[in-house]
Design goal:
46% helix; binds 6-O-phosphono-alpha-D-glucopyranose; 18 helices; 2 domains; six-stranded parallel sheet; globular; Rossmann fold
């Protein structure tokens, strides 16, 4: 069983003479002004939440974009700050971006080209040469910041996600012998989808500068290898899952990411969470007997519109639930400078209003949307109160909400309704699996979950909790590092 301690020991023993660097676009902790005072906040995204406990165990350096408005006032002269700010365990080094860089690299190439290209959710990617140049310049900035940190020491650099595709290449141009790995947190599409990208060769060459490439599931590894075969003159070894390109070998492996299972269960059982459960009906405007929950960053890949359509059909088909059932959709807004996201918010709002108008009766209406950041204890209380949690991604690398919900489900109540198109569905077979595009079957899935006997529900949840407990975040990081040590 992998634990924080086992991971710590592995790193202490095996990587002791290496500088351990993680780099991602999103920072795990930001500093923000609140009036004149500076407050800090923990990021809420899947990637940062998953990696923070790993980093706390490893005590390395995390390089990330300093996006908080008070970030510059919280760092030392080397742009570093110790985090978590209330209980320092590791170093966060911030990289600064100009507004133009943020527009071209983050809002542009990362989120209007690579994000829609990688998720098959039928949003056309936009490719703009200026965005691409900006993206490369920012990757160079990250590479320079990392190079400065490692100097001429031995180093293990662990890059995260689609924001930093070119980084390893820039690092290796200066320091050939460092070990570099990248974990791709989103799906890798099939070659037919990927081939439209005008920068495909440069992207693939950037990724193949890494010694190890990780994806959540084997299917994405296979998609990646097929893409390489189609696009580059490289030697793909399907048995070993590796690529040799221009004399350099890259190992490709699946590592399904997870959560800090034990910590979530422990926090969910604490007295603060238990107390706030009683207050939840006061937070939700319409009265209800059955609470159905959805928590997603507001994104077109998450199937939020599809969930509302399924709830509509469910109430139409099973009218006995009208007046009793409330669907609460929580989620932070992001990427709002991109028009597609602004349009999505409007569409969600409009659809929810339409459905509420259709069924409203007295004080009751079925859909409640809350688009704001919610305190962690409160989220845990929502997870524990919910009779049902809906995860309906149209395409998702893993989806950690599904795993977090189950680990917070210490009372073994409720049920998970989960999209087939998430990486999580490969493992969580005891959830009610649905196709979010099939409204009728999705509505029936909600009904099946609600009708399930207490005993069956408990059995299924227990099984899924056990599996997540075993395949926790420390195992994910431990396997990744063990694979690197084999190289
Ligand atoms: C999701 C994806 C991650 C990605 C992150 C970026 O959590 O699963 O792979 O890195 O979004 O979100 P952001 O808010 O930083 O754009």
């Amino acid at each position: 069983m992998w634990t924080k301690e086992r991971l710590q020991n592995t790193i202490k023993k095996q990587l002791k003479d290496h500088v351990f660097v993680i780099a991602s676009n999103r920072e795990p902790y930001s500093h923000e002004y609140s009036g004149k005072a500076i407050k800090w906040a923990k990021a809420i995204g899947g990637l940062t939440v998953a990696l923070d406990p790993v980093m706390q165990a490893c005590k390395g350096i995390w390089v990330a974009y300093g996006s908080g408005d008070a970030d510059k006032d919280a760092v030392d002269k080397n742009d570093k700050v110790q985090v978590p700010p209330d209980k320092p365990r590791y170093t966060l080094k911030r990289v600064w971006l100009t507004k133009e860089e943020e527009i071209g690299y983050y809002y542009g190439y990362a989120n209007q080209s690579l994000w829609p290209l990688s998720h098959i959710a039928y949003r056309q990617p936009i490719f703009n040469r200026e965005h691409w140049n900006c993206y490369k310049a920012v990757n160079k900035k990250f590479a320079d910041a990392i190079l400065k940190e490692i100097g001429d020491k031995k180093a293990f650099i662990w890059l995260q996600d689609y924001h930093l595709v070119k980084c390893a290449q820039y690092i290796k141009e200066k320091r050939k012998n460092v070990i570099s790995a990248l974990f791709w947190h989103i799906p890798w599409p099939n070659p037919e989808v990927f081939r439209v990208c005008p920068q495909k060769k440069e992207l693939l060459e950037g990724l193949l500068a890494n010694d190890l490439l990780g994806f959540h599931i084997l299917y994405h590894c296979h998609n990646f290898l097929s893409t390489i075969e189609q696009e580059l003159e490289a030697k793909v070894n399907w048995e070993e899952l590796s690529v040799i390109y221009k004399g350099h070998k890259t190992i490709v492996r699946p590592f399904p990411i997870s959560v800090d299972a034990e910590a979530i269960s422990r926090h969910a059982s604490n007295i603060k969470v238990t107390r706030s459960i009683d207050k939840i009906p006061l937070d939700i405007d319409p009265p209800y007997e059955i609470l159905c929950l959805g928590i997603d960053r507001v994104d077109y890949t998450k199937g939020i519109l599809e969930k509302i359509k399924a709830v509509d059909r469910f109430l139409e088909k099973y009218p006995e639930y009208q007046g009793k059932f409330v669907y609460l959709q929580l989620g932070a807004l992001g990427r709002l400078r991109i028009q597609t996201y602004k349009d999505l918010i409007n569409s969600i709002q409009a659809l929810a209003e339409e459905v509420n108008w259709k069924y409203r009766s007295g004080y009751w209406y079925p859909i409640v949307l809350v688009n704001k950041r919610i305190e962690y204890n409160k989220i845990l209380a929502y997870y524990r109160s919910a009779d049902l949690c809906l995860v309906a991604s149209l395409h998702d690398g893993m989806n950690l909400v599904a795993k977090e919900y189950l680990m917070a489900n210490v009372d073994l109540k409720g049920m998970l309704v989960l999209s087939h198109f998430t990486g999580a569905a490969r493992d969580l077979k005891d959830a009610i699996l649905i196709n979010p595009y099939d409204t009728e079957a999705f509505a029936d899935g909600i009904y099946t979950a609600l009708k399930m006997s207490k005993k069956e529900r408990e059995n299924r949840i227990k099984k899924m909790r056990q599996s997540i407990d075993e395949k926790n975040i420390y195992r994910w990081a431990g396997h990744f590092i063990e694979q690197l040590l084999k190289l």
